[in-house]
């Protein structure tokens, strides 16, 4: 397929770049980290969304090359930020099942000089579906490297909660569909968010409410106790150059 060939080329010739979206602490609205979101500017087709090309990478053998490219670039760029900021990198379930992932993460941290505690790996619930024992072993091995682990898009996938208490996760990212559905009049989604926050607290995990766009959502979510917020109300994802300029301004 053309898109597959083009993607292979894009990875090799640096047509990809990463945009960073701030994740802020609910209590003071200060950024504590950034999520790395890959972008592809195709020479003929223009901008192509990762929701289109990440699945292509997953269907082919490109997903590991893509994942390693994103990891390395994100760690290199995060090493230029203040030490207080973490960088969160999305890890595809296929990448996650590769046995050499902890080794790759460790050598990337070594080469870029980023302290392990500043890297967050975002995994999805689907990693718990196939091989729960292998998954726990992988999570443990990654924790040994010193990185933090976040469960992404929580609430949209596999619904067994059993794995949560036995997995060494540091944070839960509440899927934006719950945030978008939470209003004063429809309280079901707000109840779900409150329940996830309570569960995370009991398990000593942080919570990130994703996709907060509007002031009424911000008020509601803050009241529900999520420790962190990510969404357009604070910032869209931006390139490294723009992020560095903002950090320089102190904002
Ligand atoms: O901004 P947004 O359109 O970036 O991202 C769309 C989807 O692509 C999201 O589900 C997001 O998790 C995913 N995504 C973005 N960057 C990466 C990446 O580097 N690796 C993987 N596996 N998924 C990514
Ligand atoms: O699947 P994951 O959570 O990794 O991807 C995050 C996705 O959410 C990206 O596509 C990102 O651009 C998008 N996103 C981030 N903030 C907002 C927001 O406030 N509203 C909407 N609609 N999307 C957002
Ligand atoms: Mn994510
Ligand atoms: Na998510």
Automatic annotation (TrEMBL):
Residue ranges constituting the EAL domain according to the UniProt record: 1-251
Full protein name: Phytochrome-like protein cph2
Domain of life: Bacteria
């Amino acid at each position: 397929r053309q898109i597959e060939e083009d993607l292979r080329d894009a990875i090799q010739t640096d047509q990809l770049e990463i945009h960073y979206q701030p994740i802020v602490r609910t209590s003071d609205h200060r950024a504590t980290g950034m999520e790395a979101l890959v972008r592809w500017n195709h020479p003929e087709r223009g901008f192509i969304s990762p929701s289109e090309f990440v699945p292509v990478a997953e269907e082919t053998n490109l997903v590991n090359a893509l994942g390693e490219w994103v990891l390395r670039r994100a760690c290199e760029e995060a090493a230029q930020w203040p030490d207080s900021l973490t960088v969160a990198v999305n890890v595809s379930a296929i990448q996650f099942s590769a046995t050499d992932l902890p080794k790759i993460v460790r050598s990337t941290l070594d080469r870029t000089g980023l302290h392990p505690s500043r890297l967050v790996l975002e995994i999805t619930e689907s990693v718990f579906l196939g091989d729960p024992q292998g998954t726990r072993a992988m999570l443990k091995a990654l924790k040994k490297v010193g990185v933090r682990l976040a469960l992404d898009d929580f609430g949209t996938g596999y619904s067994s909660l059993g794995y949560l208490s036995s997995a060494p996760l540091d944070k839960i990212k509440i899927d934006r569909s719950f945030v978008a559905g939470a209003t004063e009049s429809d309280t079901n989604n707000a109840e779900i968010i409150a329940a996830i926050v309570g569960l995370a607290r009991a398990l000593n995990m942080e919570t990130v409410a994703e996709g907060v766009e509007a002031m009424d959502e911000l008020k509601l979510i803050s009241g529900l106790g999520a420790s962190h917020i990510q969404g357009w109300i604070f910032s869209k994802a931006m390139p490294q150059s723009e992020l560095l300029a903002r950090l320089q301004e102190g904002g």
